[in-house]
Design a protein that fits this description.
Oligomer: single chain
CATH superfamily of the largest domain: ATPase, nucleotide binding domain
GO biological process, one term: tRNA threonylcarbamoyladenosine modification
InterPro entries: ATPase_NBD (IPR043129), Gcp-like_dom (IPR000905), T6A_TsaB (IPR022496)
GO molecular function: transferase activity
CATH class of the largest domain: Alpha Beta
Keywords: Transferase
Strand content: 15-25%
Radius of gyration: 17 Å
CATH architecture of the largest domain: 2-Layer Sandwich
Structural class: alpha/beta
Pfam families: TsaD
Length: 229
């Protein structure tokens, strides 16, 4: 299934979908990497509202603080939301659980539709290139990785792999990673044109049929014993 932005001969237009008649009030929640991000799109906002908070350890209250900030700034309540979207992993196990619990809590409290997206898809959707390798941090020195191509939306071209840090430099595709994640200096880094929260928000705004069954954790734990550091 294709997700996200049609590039029409170029890689993923910078033009935001909420300027194309698809505006609704959408809350996006990300917590699978080193920081939490929350974004809000609404007809009352000229541009998306984005908050990013970092902590030494994943904390559910950071998501709630960020949600409070974007709703307060927009003068909206949780009950004003029309859709909640969240990243489902792979990434930090605790971060995944916190993010999904927060999304389900808002959805059930206010009877909102919810939808989950892969954190790797979200990283790919940040890019201004037509083909990338999206990565998320796994255990120390390892990365979850998946290649994507943008053809009438982002499509994964292979299953998720677990790569060692030193393997990233030999990958043929440019790498897109969460902001602030340190990559080896010889890794070819993809250009990006939006934050992860903005990418997730755009995926949610363009979503035609939210599916609550997608809001399940994506845990990738297959670290072969022969590949342990």
């Amino acid at each position: 299934m294709a997700h996200g932005f049609s590039h029409n001969g170029r890689a993923c237009s910078l033009r935001s979908p909420w300027h194309n008649g698809l505006v609704r009030t959408v809350l996006a929640l990300l917590g699978c990497a080193g920081r939490v991000e929350v974004a809000l799109a609404s007809p009352s906002l000229a541009a998306p509202s984005v908050v990013a908070l970092a902590s030494p350890e994943p904390r559910a209250n950071l998501l709630l603080q960020a949600v409070h900030q974007v709703l307060q700034a927009a003068q909206l309540k949780v009950s004003d939301l029309e859709l909640v979207v969240a990243t489902t992993g792979p990434g930090s196990f605790t971060g995944i659980r916190n993010t999904l619990a927060c999304a389900w809590g808002f959805a059930q409290a206010c009877h909102l539709p919810v939808h989950g997206f892969s954190s790797l898809l979200v990283q790919a959707a940040r890019s201004g290139e037509a083909e990338v390798l999206a990565v998320q941090p796994a255990r120390k020195g390892w990365f979850y990785a998946q290649p994507f191509v943008c053809k009438e939306g982002w499509i994964a071209t292979a299953p998720v792999e677990i790569l060692r840090q030193e393997e990233l430099a030999s990958q043929p595709l440019s790498v897109v990673a969460p902001p602030g994640l340190k990559l080896p200096p010889d890794v070819k880094v993809a250009s990006t044109c939006r934050t992860p929260a903005e990418a997730l928000l755009a995926l949610g705004v363009q979503l035609e049929s939210p599916d609550s069954s997608t809001l399940v954790p994506s845990y990738v734990e297959a670290f072969p014993a022969s590949r342990e550091p």
